[in-house]
Amino acid sequence: MKHDRPKISDVARLAGVSTATVSRALSAPERVSEETRAAVQQAVEATGYRLNLAARNLRHRRTGGIVALVPNLANPFFSQILSGIASVLGPAGYNLLIADTRTADAQTLLDYAEPSRADGLIILDGTLPATALQGRVPVVEACEWVPGLPAPRVKIDNRAAAGLAIGHLADLGHRRIGHVAGPRGNVLTEARLSGTAEALAARGLPFPEEHLYPGDFSLDSGREAARIWLDQPAATRPTALFLASDAMACGFIGEVQRHGLRVPGDLSVVGFDDIELVAHISPPLTTIRQPRTEIGRAAAERMLACLKGETREADTVLPVELILRASTGPAPA
């Protein structure tokens, strides 16, 4: 027996309103009264009506998709940000599409910025070319940002966050504090490095060139930084390290432990991000917590505002938190 698919007219008849009112209640609920919204919702549930998103998108000349450009999908740091984005876009009727910028060439990036491919871009990679992204579809930058790209930004104060880490180590009595940086030129790397240098100077502590170690936010680069640190004289090398990512901190700790050193007995370590793993390593990592889910939600909310034609120039800056665990302790005697 054939069952006809419920139509919008069925919903209207049951709710006692016009089809135009049903359409408004479903696509722009703020434009109808709460009583009308409730009546339409009850009728939708009773009839089993399903909104034809493809048809609606065609009428409104939109794709129904927002593309998030991520620099490394294998990095667990991005999972909560993407979850936060999806939690806002989904209820608003948008699909979240995700692209790894490491595997996309310049032409692919240009294609993502076409209105026929996406209604907007949420950028999490600060190394992308501004010229390829500007003026095509609405853009929001989250966590990282592209210099020269005039777009709303959702971020943290990376300099102040680095200051929290350095202040904690200095308060524990450490006077030789080193830093493992991210890839040079990256906006996060430079902000955290500047914050480290400023905080050390404010405390009257030295920051010689040999206490700055290269990295790229990865586990392997943390291990390599540890090898450099291990080769330095024990009497002059740092007794505490602040690393610009949790992944590097994990690699660093693992390498020094393999050489028989104790964390925090011989060396204190602070990471950055508070990814899920670091509460479960040995020792659990002291780190700077970024509100990753909130970053994602705020970025999605700003994107929805952009799609409605709302503009707000000021950046959204979210607070960070120093999470104290067992990888930091008093400076060794």
Automatic annotation (TrEMBL):
Alphabetized InterPro entries for the sequence: HTH_LacI (IPR000843), LacI/GalR-like_sensor (IPR046335), Lambda_DNA-bd_dom_sf (IPR010982), Peripla_BP_I (IPR028082)
Keyword Transcription regulation in record: yes
Pfam families named in the record: LacI, Peripla_BP_3
Keywords: DNA-binding, Transcription, Transcription regulation
HTH lacI-type domain residues: 6-60
Recorded GO MF terms: DNA-binding transcription factor activity; transcription cis-regulatory region binding
Membrane-spanning ranges: none
Gene3D superfamilies in the cross-refs: 3.40.50.2300, lambda repressor-like DNA-binding domains
PANTHER family: HTH-TYPE TRANSCRIPTIONAL REGULATOR GALS, LACI-RELATED TRANSCRIPTIONAL REPRESSOR
Protein name: LacI family transcriptional regulator
Species the sequence originates in: Gemmobacter lutimaris
